[in-house]
């Protein structure tokens, strides 16, 4: 997990976890089309990731989008296309090789995160395995949802406390998810 500057993150983001909203999928699809147009033929594929992509759990109402590209350096050249869509350029933001963008609505509320990676790097596999594992394992997804709700109540104004509180659980689920994905490939 990326380490955030606690004071910076506290001042910008209230921790809110809400029940799954079925409109999140459509919001992802709409935004994915715009991103695909903005980044053009560099895009290999675009995935909905994060808690809003898991239909059974509570989530922060921020759509996480993972984009795989052929050439990560070309994304830097295309940053103005992302700013034209309303995104703020965040650079690697704690993960080497990633390009991270975030978007806010007219009221200043965060609505989207875009994580861009070169195709087939481990970070991509990790995100997709976690999402797919949670969808396929509703008991673990429920545990994750319950943890998120508890932490949101415990850290309503402290996003770093919330993130830190999830870290151990996420790492354990990622380990299980990667093993699960490998076992599917062997079947």
Summarize this structure as a short list of keywords or feature phrases:
single chain; 187 residues; alpha+beta; Beta Polymerase, domain 2; 5-stranded mixed beta sheet; 7 helices; 5 strands; globular; disordered N terminus
Please tell me what the overall shape is. globular
Q: What's the N-to-C terminus distance?
A: 31 Å
Task: Count the DSSP helices.
Answer: 7
Uncertain stretches: 1-11
* Beta fraction: 15-25%
CATH secondary-structure class? Alpha Beta
- Structural class of the secondary structure composition? alpha+beta
SSE series: HHEEHHEEEHHH
Describe the 3D structure.
The protein is of the alpha+beta class and 187 residues long. The protein has a single domain (14-186), classed as Beta Polymerase, domain 2, CATH 3.30.460.10. Helices cover 51% and strands 17% of the residues. It has 7 helices and 5 strands, in the order H-H-E-E-H-H-E-E-E-H-H-H. The protein has helices spanning 6-12, 23-39, 72-77, 79-84, 122-136, 138-154, 159-186; strands at 43-49, 63-69, 87-89, 99-104, 110-118. A 5-stranded mixed beta sheet has the order 1-2-5-4-3, sandwiched between helices. The chain is globular. 28% of the residues are buried. Residues 1-11 have low confidence and may be disordered.
């Amino acid at each position: 997990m990326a380490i955030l500057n606690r004071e910076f993150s506290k001042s910008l983001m209230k921790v809110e976890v809400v029940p799954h909203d079925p409109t999140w999928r459509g919001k992802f699809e709409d935004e994915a089309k715009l991103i695909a147009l903005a980044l053009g033929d560099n895009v290999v594929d675009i995935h909905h990731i994060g808690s809003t992509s898991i239909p059974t759990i509570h989530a922060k109402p921020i759509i996480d989008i993972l984009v795989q590209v052929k050439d990560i350096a070309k994304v830097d050249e295309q940053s103005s296309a992302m700013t034209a869509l309303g995104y703020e350029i965040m650079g690697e933001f704690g993960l080497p090789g990633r390009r991270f963008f975030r978007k806010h609505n007219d009221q200043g509320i965060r609505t989207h995160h875009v994580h861009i990676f070169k195709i087939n790097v481990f970070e991509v596999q990790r995100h997709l395995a976690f999402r797919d594992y949670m969808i396929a394992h509703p008991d673990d997804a429920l545990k994750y949802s319950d943890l998120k709700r508890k932490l949101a109540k415990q850290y309503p104004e402290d996003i770093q406390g919330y993130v830190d509180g999830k870290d151990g659980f996420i790492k354990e689920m990622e380990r299980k998810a990667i093993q699960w994905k490998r076992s599917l490939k062997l079947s």
